[in-house]
Amino acid sequence: MLLPSENEYIVVGDVHGCIDELKSLLQKQGFETDEQEKLQITPENEHKSIILLGDFIDKGSEEKLAETIEFIHKNYQHLNSQRKRFYLIEGNHEDMVHRYIKNDPTLVINERTLRNKEKYYNTVALLEKKPYLKELFLELYTFCDVWYKYSYNENFSVTLTHAPCEEQYLTQNNAEGQKKMIKCISRSKNPTLPLDELIPYTHQEAKQNQHYHVFGHLSQPSIRQYRNKICIDTSAIYGNTLSCVIIKNNQLSFDDVPFEAKQKKGSQTYNTLFDF
Ligand SMILES: [Mn+2]
Fold it and tell me: Per the database record, which ranges form the Calcineurin-like phosphoesterase domain (predicted)?
């Protein structure tokens, strides 16, 4: 999906129910939220678009997850009413929660998947309790795309996906390509392996050029960049920061806001990307 290059883009990493932080980050980037929870379009921000890089659900508290879904749904409609200025990228959490609530027949329900549902996909229980939220989520899911690409000129482009993936799969619309752009090999299933060994292609394929690949998915202590590969999941729900990359013409810049402690933070050990 190609993005019009005349607009500016604010691309936000894994939100995971950090709705207060999302609002703060967007406010810092020129989008105020009004009393109806609508992002205000002004002459100063009307050329800007917002892109969520996937994984806006799960891990947060039920209250914050509900707020997140409501906020994104409301503003998806509101911001896109005149021209498209709000985009959603599908993350592995949207994918899995969708599979659970739609009773995907390819999802084997056994002890492990039931445990995972509680442990990693806590949005499922919330949606099962609140049918109106389930409807909002199902609609949001249909709005998600797997990748976007911004192309400024032959020397500068930015490809956006939730997960890092081998270059051969980037922007491929077949089933295998889509799967790879949504999720890479699991860290939790390979806890002893350093991240750079688990997904070696990320640094091996990195090039010293301005055809960037920006992704999230791998919670990090800070934005991690090696050549043209950039990870912007800075672990908001783990008490760190929520980050964004701003694409303007042929320039990238970054911004972030701290975790606001309005919900319980998760705990995890960072496994750092580009740790060499
Ligand atoms: Mn993810």
Answer: 10-129
Walk along the chain (276 residues) and give the pLDDT tens digit of each residue: 999 999 999 999 999 999 999 999 999 999 999 999 999 999 999 999 999 999 999 999 999 999 999 999 999 999 999 999 999 999 999 999 999 999 999 999 899 989 999 999 999 999 999 999 999 999 999 999 999 999 999 999 999 999 999 999 999 999 999 999 999 998 888 888 999 999 999 999 999 999 999 999 999 999 999 999 999 999 999 999 999 999 999 999 999 999 999 999 999 887 899 999
Q: How far apart are CA 48 and CA 15, in angstroms?
A: 19
For residue 166, how far is its CA from the centre of ligand 1 (angstroms)?
16
Block residue for tokens 């609609």: 139
Report the SS3 class of residue 11: strand
The pTM of this model reads 0.97
CA 256 to centroid of ligand 1, rounded, Å = 19
CA of 154 to the centre of ligand 1 (A): 30
89 alpha carbon – ligand 1 mean position (Å): 11
Domains of the chain: 2-200+215-258 (3.60.21.10)
Amino acid residing at 78:
H
